[in-house]
Specification:
The protein is α+β, with helices and mostly antiparallel strands. Helices cover about 30% and strands about 30% of the residues. The longest helix has 22 residues.
Length: about 725
Amino acid sequence: MGKAKKGGKRITKRQLSEMLVNFFSANPERVYTFKEIFRALHLDTHPAKMLAVDTMEEMAWDDFLVRTSINSYQLNTKGQVQEGVFRRKSNGKNSFVPSDGEQPIFVSERNSMGALDGDKVRVSVMARRQNHIKEAKVIEILERKKDTFVGKLVVGKDIAFLKTNDNLARDILIPKKRLKKGQTDDKAVVKIVSWPDEEHTNMIGEVVDILGKCGDNDVEMNTILAQYGLPYRYPKAVEDAADKITGEITKQDEAEREDFRNTWTCTIDPKDAKDFDDALSIKRLDNGLWEVGVHIADVSHYVKDGSVIDKEAVKRATSVYLVDRTIPMLPERLCNFICSLRPDEEKLAYSVIFTINEKAEVKDYRIRHTVIKSNRRFTYEEAQEIIETGKGEYKDEILELNKLAQILREKRMANGAINFDRCEVKFEIDENGKPLSVYFKESKEANKLIEEFMLLANRTVAEHIGKVPKNKKPKVFPYRIHDLPDPDKLESLSQFIARFGYKIRTGGTKTEVSKSINRLLNDIEGKKEQNLIETVSLRAMQKARYSIHNIGHYGLAFDYYTHFTSPIRRYPDLMVHRLLTRYLAGGRTAQADKYEELCEHSSAMEQTAAERASVKYKQVEFMGERIGNVYDGVISGVTEWGLYVEINENKCEGMVPMRDLGDDYYEFDEKNYCLIGRKRHQKFSLGDPVQIKVARANLEKKQLDFVLADDKLPIKK
């Protein structure tokens, strides 16, 4: 190999390039630091080393090498053709995200081949032009993310098309014979029958369902469901199967179950709830002990694995809660009647029964199929009034349950559980779905009473199956897992809250970190920045999900946790019930792949995107009648296209577009969450209080636009 000796003839760039090509080609898998490269190529003069650094930088620019850190390189073995996901952006900055997690590559519209957001594609990485970024060209669409779209029909004389809020390059053309009698301004579901090719640049679709006219509340809510691929009506076969279930409790059912019909039992739920998943019983025992039963609707008794009802429940995986309605996982006959633990009705349940002392220490527990009969259905408000006044029907039972729940909560917090008690925004709506006012739903002691006993039951079931002797392998079981916070996001959170004068720990044990987050959440309570800091703090957390591979639940500070308590509205709970019954009867472990796949599907379907979209729709509808009104707000988001502002009074969020920010050019500082004016250096930062005027409300796009009131700058703190 060539050598650049001190005092000898200086090596040329061409020679060095050849040496580097040979060196990296001979060792394609290894990453080399500058020091290792200099030593291997005998580059011991400063000019030779600097020439090598410059040459490797050019080689990385030409994609021959990959820069793996500030001072290391590796041969680029990926080649020019790669597979991954296409991401379409409304600003034209489309990108290709490689499957191996490497950096995204820019794809211009002319090189996109009409790919849609989320499509799996094959691209060719293009030769890089001087002083240009790396680009890719889509050469094949491997798999479409979706083939059904929802939008508004525009019907012309000869042809119709669908206008959607999806980020499509062009509208979807619909031949007249495929319109299904749809008319202009109808909301419709359209399936693609022909994708673009070199001759045709538009997608061709056919109407599969007409939802109704724009602006009608039911139509708009069904549109939101359809947009997110969620079912907006029940298949008749599933409804018919549910109608055949009698709900009768047989003598055999009674013989196989523990009888709790004469033990005092109640449900505590929201006032508008109809699907009562869970009930609590309490009975005084000897020696200062209490027997507390957590009774859960025995859905698995009625919904058999593989049945037509079960297949539909798998598909849905969860009930969806929109602003004005619930889209249930199970047919109404099951979720609101047969399975629901309604008062004064005998019901089948799956129960965890605890023997607890006055210090809320669990002395013993048993898991049983039971028959129960609820004495009373409490709303949260009714139970809360008993807790606050000490008066009311069954006050002794409610007060005792609350006392035990508070001790359980204190212990959980002391162990490092994170206390995210977020205030929920709710709309009061009339019979036509029109929003009349906004109110805030807070979690009070009655809510926490139920929460603590549900957490205890979930944890106990998970430990019962998951905790096994050292040399024994635990059986396959769905867990609810939650990983530690992302360290980079935690560091960003620390920097963000510092501007408000708060601190958190970003290192140390997980208990120390979680306790410092709890201190932060306590410190901000009642302050104007509370909602903003809670939102940013939540973003630093990982998402909880389902898996058969248990890693514990960081947010709850539990080593074992599952979902057992809501089988009416969550499919994983139904899986847990079935497996628990199987294992308690001595059955063999279940098939791992099957249940992990179901866990992944349930995690994916647990999306709140449709719920958020319905809230956003009502916000825009509500604020649409308040155009021109001025409100105090706080900057809740900063992007390259403008500022998001949340109104203090009602938590409705809108955008101040960049074009409406005055006569300066603003640059986006992503690291510091702010926009800075180039001429006047005016700064708009996340968390700044501002005064806004409601400017525009676009219901179709669910978009609310604000302008700064009288061009007011951020209010000084």
